[in-house]
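step: validate -> pass
step: tokenize input -> pass
step: predict -> running
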Amino acid sequence: MSNLPVEPEFQQAYNELASTLENSTLFQKNPEYRKALKVVSIPERVVQFRVVWEDDKGELQVNRGFRVQFNSALGPYKGGLRFHPSVNLSILKFLGFEQIFKNALTGLNMGGGKGGADFDPKGKSDNEIRRFCVAFMTELCKHIGADTDVPAGDIGVTGREIGFMFGQYKKIRNEFVGVLTGKGLSWGGSLIRPEATGYGLVYYVEHMIKYATEGKESFAGKRVAVSGSGNVAQYAALKVLELGGSVVSLSDSQGSLVVNGEGSFNAEEIAIIAQVKVDRKQLSEIASTEAFSQKFKYIPGARPWTHVGKVDVALPSATQNEVSGEEAEALIAAGCKFIAEGSNMGCTQAAIDTFEAHRETNAGAAAIWYAPGKAANAGGVAVSGLEMAQNSARLSWTTEEVDARLKGIMEDCFQNGLQTAKEYVTPAAGSLPSLVAGSNIAGFKKVVAAMKEQGDWF
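step: predict -> pass
step: emit ->
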């Protein structure tokens, strides 16, 4: 490994998967899978390119563009595009690696990939964003296709950016196909797609609560801490409210809004925050307004976990490594019983170790139960897969049909991880099964079995 570049995010994702495989009976029962791990951890293809565009002053700008086509054993590469100044190859490899197994857990025919650019859409005009998207897609279109690689949105890539890129792809390739997901509803998009990751996250946690409490509890009456304020956080919060829970926090990169006392965000307040994000502004700009200042406290430069008081559920939904080991300890001390990642790799390894140790040493509902993003936040890519299916058939399904399919997929994700954990990881007496181990093993087994049948390893 000494000849490889330093890639801390990818190394963290790899180590998290590899360690759970090692600490299970998988390699004892299937020793040949060790060499499969070596193969699956290397991308099939990495595309890197320059993106040259002009700003509104007519000045030349240049960014780096990427697409990591990690694994196509189960179907076309599938994974989002991220536009953010932090984007680099390590982050995209970690995201693409996670995407392989997340997509496998959905049960849909999708491989894993990820891409993006170190372009920052904040502070840019619509015309600057359009010119960047056109330049980006002019190169990316050579490497993607409806049956090859189907990107979606991610951080910094909303329906606006998807529209600009789709239009450029159509102009260059002279074909109207489902090459991107997250499209507008009038030209191939799917209902429920914006809501899917947040809704799916809550549906997944519903099954966690039901299993851990033997059906005695639900979201009703639960205090739920949420981080982030983008699509995932917004729709997770709205679904929690719909199911009778209270949402006590939202946040962004500059700070956190936390409810004073026993209250909750309501749908109207979440709608105001959604508009703030559409306008590419920060929560700090509304924190001091009359509508928010009396009900909420704003904590600049802080994540919400140590400021929310007693909570039952935590849903990190902002970005990677947003829950540290110390914050994990604080959540346990605050009475949190369920934590599930709406973001990708939302918890540091120290946090995961803290949650898993608590689960192993406490019986059943007395423990905190952790669910990894590759299972808990699979709803977004699941509905992207459903959008692909609708595009292939030139059909549009109803909200009710898409939502029902999403609920079924999230239940399958939960049950698959749960049952796999029971098979390969013997829990301590009375403790809950490890969802992180079960999800990792289930996704890994499905992918490498397909790779073997296709001759990628033997």
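step: describe -> The two ends are 23 Å apart (CA to CA).
step: cleanup -> pass
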